[in-house]
Write a structure and sequence with these properties.
Layout (H helix, E strand, L loop, with lengths): L1 H16 L6 E4 L9 H22 L4 E4 H9 L6 H10 L7 H18 L4
Helix pairs in contact: 1-2, 3-5
Amino acid sequence: MDRILHLANDIIGIIRKFRVRYVAMEGKGASYGSRGQAQTFQRGGLAYVVMTQIWLACHLFPEVVAASTARKVVLGYGHAKKPDVMAALTANRVELGSDHEADAYVVARWMFEQVKEGKK
């Protein structure tokens, strides 16, 4: 539990420091089929703890988006695999260190597009 709260507090610190107005998280089946139901349940529980802490501390409710939805908006096709995401971003001069960073970038960019279009 300490680790989860430490993670949530780190996120809240960043939200406050940079005066973040919108938060997006990858979700909606992000881990289904990856390593079994137990891990899906654990990750889902972690997500809800972090989301609750963000709400309580910052009065922001994170927008949850499926990876395929974010990828479709940002890359033009939703079923891109991780290497395809990295390649597409690199081709657009977005250099990231890992596929996890690439996924986070795509979700953040999706949120930016939603706000820009007045959907949020």
